[in-house]
Amino acid sequence: MNFQETNELNSFLEGIKPEKKNYTIHIDALRTTYICLEKTYTLPQVPFSGLEFVSIKTYLQNISEFVPDLISNFKVYPYPYPKKDTHKLILLKELEIDNNKYLILLKFDVGYLGGANHKEIKKEASSNYSASIETNRIYFSTRILPITEIQKENSVILGFHSKGFEIQESIIEKDNSDERKIYSVFFDEMDYTEILTPIKKFFKIEEFWKFSKIIEPFQFENLVPSIRFFEYDINSIEKNFHSFYTIFNLREPTLIEKSNIENFQSWLSTFTIERTFTLSKNIAWKIIKHSL
């Protein structure tokens, strides 16, 4: 997308009245998070080559009725992040706490993911476009990641930088063996187990989050850490993050406040996950958020 198109989409988002809604987050068998609506909307056709202005505009218009408080006050990021996610729409919101910069990142699956029955298909897929379907699901994820710099022109976010996670500078103990693991950086297909395991141990995550086999609260992309949030309410997400934001000081764990670790652990403990099944009998999970 060009600058003018991105600016037009941002203007549309700014004009949305943030009427408060309430949804429960679900997880499908592929570990993708989504919400279920009481009504259906039309998922537009998307070029196989990647998202374009028309498909994004149509998608935002179609979901704005159902999630106005989720997407208002966010900005469209005109590029995929990471580059492999060409069919995912990125919306960003800046957040600053004690001179530390963060981004709230919403990532929507705009393209058809499969599984629709014949009645739900509005337009069949072609050689260049995915199918258009009628659905009651919005697939998206919410994360917060630390950044060092953001590039903007007027209200359009053109780029951002976040210092990548370096194993030797972190809470991870160095491996004394002579063997070194080699990771493939193609399409960001990296095995982050060596990084995640000691982080989970340091924060005692598995004592408070019992669902690591289903989904993890810490996520890495391009060696950049982020926290996944499993609730719909953006205001609640910001409030909770304010209580434990120093946990991103993974290179200097002495700067992580003890109260922040405790708040992070308390936040993790407010979630339970209930196994369910979809109409097509596939396994799924419902995330239930309890009060602190």
Give a written overview of the molecule.
With 292 residues, the chain is of the alpha+beta class. It is 21% helix and 31% strand. The protein has helices spanning 3-14, 53-63, 68-71, 193-202, 205-208, 234-242, 258-268; strands spanning 25-27, 33-43, 75-77, 88-97, 100-109, 121-123, 132-147, 149-153, 156-161, 218-221, 224-229, 271-277, 283-289. Strand 12 and strand 13 form a beta hairpin. Helix 1 (3-14) runs parallel beside helix 2. The N and C termini lie far apart (42 Å).
Secondary-structure blueprint:
Elements: H1 3-14, E1 25-27, E2 33-43, H2 53-63, H3 68-71, E3 75-77, E4 88-97, E5 100-109, E6 121-123, E7 132-147, E8 149-153, E9 156-161, H4 193-202, H5 205-208, E10 218-221, E11 224-229, H6 234-242, H7 258-268, E12 271-277, E13 283-289
Antiparallel strand pairs: 1-2, 1-13, 2-7, 3-4, 4-5, 5-7, 6-7, 7-11, 8-9, 10-11, 12-13
